[in-house]
Each structure stands twice: as structure tokens, then as C-alpha cells.
Amino acid sequence: MGLKTYIGKRIMLLFFVLVGISLISFFISHVIPGDPARLMAGTFARPEQIEQVREELGLDKPLYEQYYIYIKNLLHGDLGMSLHTRRSVAYDLKKYFAATFELTTFSMLITILVGVPIGILSALHKNTFYDHIFRLFSLSGVGMPQFWLAMILQLIFCVKIGILPIQGRIASTVIEQYPLHHITGLYLLDSLLTANWPVFKSSLSHILLPSLTLAYVSLAMVARMMRSNMLEVLNQEYILTEKIYGIPEKKINYVYALKNAFIPTLTIIGLSYGYQLAGSVLIENIFSWPGLGRYAVVAIINADYPAIMGVVILSGFLYVIVNLIIDILYCVLDPRIKY
Amino acid sequence: MGKRKMKTKKIFAILLVASLSFIMFSGCIGEKEETPTPTAQPTTAAPTEKNLTVAQKDLDTLYIATIQEPTTLDPAAVYDGSDRATTQIYEGLTQFKGSTIEVIPCLATSWDISPDYKEYTFYLRKGVTFSDGTPFNADAVKFSYDRMMKLKKGLAWAFNLVLERVEVIDEYTVKFFLKDSYPAFLSMTASRYGAPILSPSVMKHEVNGDLAHGWLYDHAIGTGPYMLKEWKFGEEYVLVKNPNYWRGWEGKHVNKIVFKIVPEPSTQKLLLEKEEIDTATHISIDDLAELAKNPEFKLVSSKPGESMFNFFVLMNTRKGPLQNKKLREALSYAFPYEDCIKYSFKGFATQALGPLTPSTPCHKSDIFQYHRDIEKAKECLREAGVDQDGDGKVDGGMTLSIAYMSGQDWAMKILDVLTAACQELGISLQPKPLTWSAMMDNLVSQETAPDLNIADWWPDYPDPDSFLTGMCEYYFWGGREEKDYFYYNKDLVQILSKAAFLPDLDERCSLYKEAQEILVEDCPAIWVLDLKFTTPLRKEVHGFVFNPMKTMTYNCYDMWKEPEA
């Protein structure tokens, strides 16, 4: 089977995955406690008002009929109207996802740029002082509660030293003075593309702490994974053969060994990236980051099932896509892999 | 050949990855946002970001942190924290004076009320315009109230119960005809949810007969001191001064208000300490106590008897062990009110004196008040027949379920205190943290109703009808079948429905006092405390006045910032 066929098959599969996700999430979101009609009608709504809203929302219809209508609209690209924000769910997702995408991608960059070298260095200097330090760093990352780390970082960098902002995505005064021309919806990228340096500086300073907090856990996992894979590869016979042939050690380590050791690490990176793209509730709340996680929590609290459905379907879609990309990258790293 | 094929495959794979990444960018986030096109960048050197983000140095702007963004800016539909924005943009015919509940003129300069409280005539202020230049007159008032009643959102349910029609007498006179005598109608027109005067010009934006409700979601045309400038969803919304405001801009004011959406109370506190905001709406009690010690802040609390926000623990009188009134009394005696206020609420509360707060008209000041008396509580247990061996504890133990709003700081404090008090009586509590909607859903049916439920209440307008009847309907019997009532007393229902529409104010008050007595006598709730509402402000902020009818909102027009000498 060629790569093209494989991708075609995976995309076909994506359709079934999405139907499955929509089916499960639709029925679950309709049985969670809380009556959306009551919420929409307002605190003091009379029973007849609540019924009227129920009728307007189509919540009085049998569940299978509601699902049929939902899927029919979904195929037309209509995710419905949020019961809480009263905006179109597609519009909301677009707004909130941009923030999450920016945060997650930035934190993933940190993860790769810091985690992978740490793992390699740990493996190359196995059982030395540096290795112990790096391992301690990784262990603390896996074990430390994220919300606690977030607050500690806020206290240190925002309150005590005072060099970074506490919350938000950008300083409102900066964006007011230097309006940003939106191209992708990502502040960092847009300001870079339009050479809007004050906005770039402000958004960079705002994204640093939340992305560092978010990166710490995945970074620790990646570093540990990279270390053990590297050690395993370095003990392979072909590495020994290369050494005998007199190939420079640097080339062996950073080209031949790294390439093979990186494949399992890539899986971890893909999984955590896909997972984080659904938004981090804790981090987004603490840093007031207007992302998907925060949107999802508000939706759940308010029994806003169209919004919940939207978030779940988008997350499922992204998870599958990210993993597909990772699978394709396997091919690039190791041409022996065939689909 | 094989090598070449592999290379082609590689290039294809890279291209595919790049294109998929591009799809992710463009498909999900790629559309251009509806924001103003970039303007020319200022040529003069702008202040640095550090200078600008510090609220203390930006004296023209008031920075307020709030936990959520508005659910709509349509003044006829607002019925939640969205009033923080709408009360700056819209005004009512009347308003409450300072920190009191006295009704004073606003868009109406005076009014006549018929002796039977069935007709209210308002004489309107001349020379007022909406922020879009539309003149304010009687037609605008009629339009606004008719629209609200037709829209059936927000406080419309209460207006629909009492208001029959609105008539324009002349350009600056408007008359309200009520279905029945209703002395509380005047204060309804001052309520933050009952002041829907908006420009008739909004109807240009009506779509499919929605009365422009969709458009008004994020647009606003009112007569108030501020106008909506921009709303960055999930981040902040900004109001700027309405240059044509009828009161003018003489004296000290702020030109701009920035509401920042900060969902985490601890982050709100950090922002306050960092001088990035001037005030915050949701600071926890423990953090308030800490800020009180900091000379950089001043805390403005409601004075004793001013607050209209109370907390109580509902007891299910129609199901389970709490059907026994003596057991309900035992819990009321066991609750350590003073300790709860002193240690859990750090003094930011006062003990409740019956179901009404003392600031509400017709409050019965000499009503019976429970005090912590553990011996009396144990005696009640014996009288209830659940302590046969006389050890002061329920024989064989007892478990009661208790529902509360998850994450609500105040409710959790009360839960902790009540759990300890119940343990002394051999009763253990089974907590059920729920979202607000789930909690209310459970209360609707006895099948799901808990034994106890921590609840809070505040009226829409300062009248015992809104306070007592509203509270009873909401928590005890409203919208349910008789079998599902949480508590029911036929006499109480009759009194409340009779009192609401009585034109004789003395008789009305005496009926409400009787109702309070019944509620204390029947003991369907532990009347715990009235919250002393406290707003933390940076010391540079002046002019804030707490009004019990505007909790968690601000009188921004009267506020200004000035460093202390």
C-alpha cells in the first residue's frame, strides 16, 4: 500500500471517528445534569416560559431526532448556536482555538527545543552529574502539579521580580496603540509577519509563563523518553560498526543515532500536542488565557451542549490530524517504514 | 532508481505535512478577524508598555477585573453579571440614591402615583439624547418597555405580571397602567434589570422579528455615561465616555473603563497587588482579609443593615428525616453563627435576622433569632424522638445529603461549619457539589431533592415581594407540582399573594411581618448570615459607593482616580 492510499484511508477513517465522537458526546452531553432550557429562560422563568424555550431549541423532540438534526446541520458546517454566549459555536471555536493553538504550539516548541537536547545530553553523559541534574529536572516536571507551578511562576516573575505580565494574551494598551493586522489569528505570528514589534514583544511576554508551565510536564516526558531511546540506540551493533569505520562520534550521535531514537519520542510529542490542543483548563484559567479549555469549562457549567459538542468534535478532529502528521513524519525519518 | 523513488516519496511526504499544517491554520483559524484595519503607527514615541499597564499611572482609565464576560448587552434581557456593563451604558427612569434604596429621578425628573398604586405618570427629562443622537422622549420609553415585555427575557416576567400597558401622554410624559395595585412598581423602574431605556433606532437592526435582540448582543445605544468601544471575546470589553452625556463631564470622572476577564480569583488578587487593575469583583474572603492589612488598598463594605444578600441552608420539610420540625430546630441551634462569621467569613458578614435582610422594607426587627446552643439542640433531638438513649446524639447515626454550588467560596465555608456542627449531634453530611443549573434541577423534583441545600438570595428590587415571594417561589414551591414542594404552608402562600398587591402600605407591611414569623416558626431553613459586601479598591480610586441593589457593579461615572497627596 502506498503512502497516498494510506493517507486516503486514514482520512476516510477520520470521518467514521468523527461520527463516533459526535454520537457519544451528543448523548453524554444531553444526560449531564442541568437543564439548558431553564438556563436559557433565566433564573425566574415560569414553567411555561421554560417550555417555550425548550420548544424553540428543539429540546422537546426525541433524542435520536435531535441527533439527526444536529448531524444534518454539521454536514452543512453549522455547529449550532451556543446557549451561553449566544454566538455561533463555529465563530466561538475559531476565536478561542486560535489562542489555544498559539499557546500549545509555543509550548510544544519549548518542549522540543529543551526536552530533546536534555534527553540527548543525559544519554551521552550517562550517570554523570549533568545526567542526575537533568533527570531530577525531568522527574520534578512529571510530579509537579501544574496549577501550583503556574502560581509559583506568577509569584516569582510577575510579583517579586515583576518582569512578566500576570495574565492575558496581550496588553490592551499596546494593541490599541499599535493595531494588529490579523492574518492567521495568532498574535505572535501576525505581529512577526507585519513587523509590529511592540505587539510581538507584548504577546511574547504574555505567552512565556503559561507556555512554560504547560511545557514543563511534556518536556519532562520527552526528555526521559529521548534519554532511554538514545541509550538503547547507542548500544546497537550498527553504532559500534560505525565507530569501527571511524565515522566521527558527533556524526554518529547526532545523525545516525538521533534519527532512530527520535521516532518513539515523536509519538509522545504527537500525543501530547494533540491532547493539549483541546485546551488546558487549569492553565488557561490561572493565566486568563482566552482558550478552548476555558470555553469548554464554561460550556459544561452552563449545560451548553452545542458548545460542548463543538469542542469535543474539534478536539477529536485535531487529535486524529496531528497523529496522521506524526505517522507521515515517521516515513520521513525512517524510509524503511512503509504503509 | 530506488533511491530516486525514495527521494520523491520524501518530498511528497514533506509537502503533505506542510499542506496539512496549512489546512489546520487556514481552515480553523485562518479567516481574517473582523477588526479595524491597521492604522498608521504613531510617529511620536509612545509610552512604554510597562508604564501603560500599570493602572495607577493611567489615571483616565478604570481597570476592573471580572470573572465572566456579559452574556448579552441587550438591557431588556440582562439578568446576570452582564449588568456590570449595561448599568454604565443604559439608564432607567429612576435610580437608587447613593448607598440607599431611596428612589430618585434619573431619566424621569418627577412622577405622580395614583392613590391606588395602579397608575404611574413619569415626567421626562428634556434635552437628553441617546449616544447615537436619537432624542430621548416618551416614545422611546414606551418602545423600550413594550419591547421588553414582548421579548419576555430578563425581568420581563415581573413586569408582565403587573404592567398592563404604557401610554404616551405627550412628548415628555408617559403613563404606566398596572393590572393591579403594586406599590413596588416605582422601585422596579430603578432596578438594574428593569431599566431598559434604549434608542428606538436599534430596530433598524431587527432580523426575523427578533426586536434587534441579536444585534444588541454586542452593540449598545443608551443614554448612559459610557458607550461600548470594543469587546474582545474572552479577554476584555472596553467602554468609553459618551461625550453627549446629559449630566456632562464637569468634575472628576474616568474617561474609559476596561473590564478584564479574569476567571481565577487568585489571579484577580495578584493583578490588584501588581497595580494592573484598580478593583476586582471576585476576591475571596481570605484574600479580602489580607488586602485589608495592605495600606495600598481600601475596602468598601456595606454597612450593617445595608446588604441585601443573604445565605441560608434549606431543609427538606417534605421528605426524609428533616420532615421532623424538632430535628430542623436542632440543626438551627447547633449552627455556630458567631464563629462562622468571625473565623470563616473573617467578619465580612452579620448574622441573619430572619429570612429578610434588615435593609429590606417591612423587615421584622424583633423576630426570633437562633443562637448557638448545643444543649438546646440536644434537647430538640430528644423531643424529635431520634435520641432515645439521651447521649445527645442521633441513635445509630444519621446521614443527610447536602447540595451546594461547587466552587462557591461562601457555600463551602458554610458547609465546613455545618458539617462540624452536625457531627456533634451524631449526624454526618454527604456533600453534593453541583453546578448552579444542576442544583436547581435537583430541587425541582423530590426524587432528586437533597435533605439540605446551601442557598443564597438577593431581590431584583428592594421590596419584600421581590425578596420573600421570589425566594419562596424559587426555592420552595415555584414551578413545581405540589408533591415536589420543598416546603409549603398554605397560610404563607395566601399572605404573600395578598400582600403584594395591597395599596395600604401599613397593612402590606404587617402581612409581610406575619410571613416572616411563619418562615421562622416553620423553620424550613437555617437563616445563616447576611453578607457584608466588600469591594477592594486601590487607594487612588475615589467615589465608589456601595448600593445593595447593585452588588458587584460600579458607579463608574462618579468614580475617579487621583494619587493621594
Characterization of this structure:
- The complex is a heterodimer of chains A (339) and B (565).
- With 339 residues, chain A is an all-alpha fold.
- Chain A has 15 helices and no strands.
- In chain A, helix 6 packs across helix 10 and helix 10 (197-234) crosses helix 12.
- Chain A is globular.
- The model of chain A has no long low-confidence stretch (mean pLDDT 85).
- Chain B is an alpha+beta fold.
- Helices cover 32% and strands 20% of the residues of chain B.
- Chain B has helices at 2-29, 49-53, 83-89, 138-151, 156-162, 185-188, 265-273, 285-292, 325-334, 337-344, 374-384, 409-424, 436-444, 464-477, 490-500, 505-522; strands spanning 61-66, 94-96, 103-105, 108-113, 119-124, 163-170, 173-178, 226-232, 236-241, 256-261, 279-280, 297-301, 310-315, 349-351, 398-405, 427-434, 452-457, 525-531, 534-538, 541-542, 560-561.
- Chain B has a six-stranded mixed sheet, sandwiched between helices.
- In chain B, strand 4 and strand 5 (119-124) form a beta hairpin.
- In chain B, helix 4 (138-151) packs across helix 5 and helix 9 (325-334) runs antiparallel to helix 11 (374-384).
- The longest helix of chain B has 28 residues, at 2-29.
- Chain B starts with a helix and ends with a strand.
- The chains are: A mainly alpha (339), B alpha+beta (565).
Named CATH architecture of the largest domain in chain B: Roll
Low-confidence residue ranges of chain A: none
Coarse shape of chain A: globular
The number of helical runs of chain B is 16
CATH topology of the largest domain in chain B: Dipeptide-binding Protein, domain 3
Order of helices and strands of chain A: HHHHHHHHHHHHHHH
Instruction: Determine the N-to-C terminus distance of chain B.
Output: 84 Å
Give the % helix of chain B. 25-40%
Q: Classify the secondary structure makeup of chain A into a structural class.
A: mainly alpha
Quote the beta fraction of chain B.
15-25%
Q: Level of helix content of chain A?
A: over 70%
